[in-house]
Amino acid sequence: MRSTLTFLRVALTERSAVVRRWFLKVFVFLWLPMSLPVAAQSPNTQFWGEYMLNYPFANSFNLENAFVYSTLANTPRWRAIEYTPTLEYSLTQHIDLTLGCTLSYTAQTEDYNTFEIRPVLGTRVNFTPNQRLQARVYLRLEQRNFLNLDTDAWERVMRPRARAEFLFPINHKDIHDDKLWYGIADVELLFTTDDVEERFANRFRARFGAGYRLSYTSRFEFLYMIQQSRSGINEDYQTSDNIFRFRYKHYLRKKKPTQSSGTGN
């Protein structure tokens, strides 16, 4: 195991330029679904407010507690409240392992409300951990357990997720400097292995935004996210959303800082 990780670290270091070019190709490939026609008459608008409390411990661990409130500006309006604790373990500078669980309540319509329990297992591969441009891939597998609060019926479905991420400093060279402006860009595919009665079961997302690291303790991010959704994996995209996300990241234990930037939902 140790020899395998050593080989991977050396290969990524020596071929960072090749990795960056490959990563850009993956980014463009995942962007292609945005060019597909959308059957929705007009895009919806959503607003998300997010608070993320991070607690690092034992050198390689970080516990992120994410609280999210989201709502639709259009009608018929839905509202959702989520809490997601995620434990992140830095196996090496190139590989992180994550384990989490989302608890979510959603008022879908006037007569249809759901409660969701979503265990999540994931891994992040950091291709350029010590360079100015942070390029990485985040892979996750979710088990989505829905409870219809009106009928008391449970539905279960597995949903893989794959996201290509970029993070880059703007006014400093190091992404870990204070008083730092930084850019964020990523694309993600989310798809179920079966159809469920849920508004956003299968999605494509593209996010662009900026963040400001005031200090190790406080970081602020604003993201604009384009989201296309469909009910079934073989159907055309049926809705398009413009999502505005306002996020505050709060880090504790400054004397034992973590390099983790969190999961980013």
From TrEMBL:
Pfam families attached to this UniProt entry: DUF2490
Name of this protein: DUF2490 domain-containing protein
Species: Chryseolinea serpens
